[in-house]
Amino acid sequence: MKKTLVTAIAATLLAALAACGGGSDSASGKTLRVGTLSDSKPNAYQENGTFTGFDNELLKAIAAKENLKLEFVATDFSALLGQVANGTFDIGSSAISQTEARKKTVDFSAPYNYQALGIEAKETAGITDENSLAGKRIGVVQGTVSDSWLGSNAPTAQAVRFPNDAAALSALKTGAVDGAVFDQATAEDYAKNNPDAKLKVTKAITTTIPHGFAFKKGNTELIGKINDGLKKVIADGTWVKVHDQFEPNAPVPAEFKAGQ
C-alpha cells in the first residue's frame, strides 16, 4: 500500500513537472504572444477576425522560417511597449520606430522598414505642410513618432492625443481636429477609403528612423531567431512580396531587395 502510494505521488510529480516544462521557451514550441494593433492599415490591423497587415504578415513569414508559433492580441499603441517590457507580450508588432527613448524600455530586432509620416486633413482645411499647422488642433496617436514629430516641427500646433488610429481618424472626419499626422501609408489608406470625408495627404515626410519588432530587454535568443528569419525572407524575396501587397506605392529600400 505504502509503495503504491509513493509510486502514485512520484508519477503525479513527474506529470506536473512535464506540464510545467513543456513549451517553456521558444525552442520547445511555446506559442509566442504578439501585441499588435487592430486598426492601423496597412501595417497592423484585423480583418475578418484575422490579424494582418505588412508588419504582421512579415512576422508570420519570419516565424514560419524559424518554426515559431504566434498568437496575435490587440492592444493600444500607447500601452504596447510597456506590455512588451513587462512580459505581457513576447513581441511587439506595429511599425514601431526604433527611437533612442524606446531603446531604454525594450530591445529591437534588426530594421525591417523605415518610418514615413503623412500630414492629413480635409481638402478645405488650408493645411499644406508643417508651417500651416500653427494654432490648429492636430490629432496624433499618443507616444508615436507622429506625436514627437509634431512637437518638434510644429510646436505652436495644439496636439490632440488619441489612444489609437481609429479615434484620431474619427475626430478628423467629424471636424473635432483640423488635421492629423499618421504613418504615411496609413494616411493614404484613410484618404482612399473615406471618399465622403474628402481627406487628403497634404505632405509626406520621409525619415531614416528604422522600424523593428520589440522584445523584452535581454531576450537575445528570440531576437536572434527573428533576425535570422528576417534575413531569410529578405533573401528569398518574401519581404518584397509582402511589401507590394500592402504598400505598393512605397519605394523598396535597397537593403530589403531579394538576394541581400
TrEMBL record:
Gene3D superfamilies: Periplasmic binding protein-like II. One of its GO terms (cellular component) is membrane. Residues 1-18 form the signal peptide. Keywords: Signal. Residues 31-242 form the Ionotropic glutamate receptor C-terminal domain. CDD domains: PBP2_peptides_like. InterPro entries: Iontro_rcpt_C (IPR001320), Solute-binding_3/MltF_N (IPR001638). Residues 31-250 form the Solute-binding protein family 3/N-terminal domain. GO terms for molecular function: ligand-gated monoatomic ion channel activity. This is Amino acid ABC transporter substrate-binding protein. It comes from Amycolatopsis vastitatis. The lineage of its organism: Bacteria, Bacillati, Actinomycetota, Actinomycetes, Pseudonocardiales.
